[in-house]
Amino acid sequence: MPKIQFTYGNENKTVEAETGKTILQVAQANSIPMISACGGMGICTTCMCMIEKNPENLEPATPAEKNMGLDGKINRLGCQARIKGATSVFL
Ligand code: FES
């Protein structure tokens, strides 16, 4: 399973993730404090995060992300970005 490194506050945590899961799902499953005010509907932006490494290891931007002007490279919605391989996420 791909390894996902999360950086938040002064902490770093690396976890294994099932491919096809969203960054938000992986964060929540590992007690990483990613906010999701709309519950993952892709409308609130509270799950916005920065992809520090390997943005190509995420599925392309979804229509919800494109509607917000996100190109699917550096800034992603955690609830929309699905994992294909190892990456690094800054909250
Ligand atoms: S949780 Fe609301 S946009 Fe992702």
Topology of this protein?
Elements: E1 3-8, E2 11-16, H1 23-29, E3 48-53, H2 63-67, E4 75-77, E5 87-90
Parallel strand pairs: 1-5
Antiparallel strand pairs: 1-2, 3-4, 3-5
How is this structure best described in words?
The two termini are 22 Å apart. The chain has helices at 23-29, 63-67, and strands at 3-8, 11-16, 48-53, 75-77, 87-90. By secondary structure, it is of the alpha+beta class. The protein has one domain (3-90): Beta-grasp domain (Ubiquitin-like (UB roll)), CATH 3.10.20.30. A five-stranded mixed beta sheet has the order 2-1-5-3-4, covered by helices on one side. It binds FE2/S2 (inorganic) cluster. FE2/S2 (inorganic) cluster is lined by residues 36-38, 40-47, 77-79.
Tell me how many strands there are.
5
N- and C-termini, Cα separation:
22 Å
The ordered H/E elements are EEHEHEE
Q: In percent, how helical is the residue content?
A: 10-25%
CATH architecture descriptor name: Roll
CATH class: Alpha Beta
In this structure, how is the largest beta sheet organized?
A: 5 strands, mixed
Task: Give me the Rg, rounded.
Answer: 12 Å
Average pLDDT, rounded to a whole number, is 96
Bound molecules: FE2/S2 (inorganic) cluster
| CATH homologous superfamily heading | Beta-grasp domain
Low-pLDDT sequence parts = none
What is the count of helical runs?
A: 2
Strand order of the largest sheet: 2-1-5-3-4
* Quaternary organisation: single chain
**What is the structural class?**
alpha+beta
Find the CATH topology.
Ubiquitin-like (UB roll)
